[in-house]
Amino acid sequence: MSPAVKYTLGRIGLFVVVALALWPVEANLFLKLMLAVAFSAALAFFLLRGWRDEMAQQLAGAAERRRAEKERLRAALAGDDRPASADEPGDRPDTVR
Question: Which InterPro entries does this entry report, sorted A to Z (predicted)?
Fold first, then answer.
């Protein structure tokens, strides 16, 4: 299961548990739901740290793959066989010497 799905389901589950715990309390429904949001967010910060870190690593990896693919496509469009780096400014054909 994807880390993002696990984390999202965990957050929803915590909200439901807290909302059900607050259900018998004599208060406005809107107030109960707002308290459930606040308490479940605080609990998720501590209880779901591992899943949150897994999700962050997955998203960082995906962003890195997109960045590498973007560089590869730009290099291909420029006619290079490999992506140009900032260390080699004169290797690109459009550079004036």
Answer: DUF4229
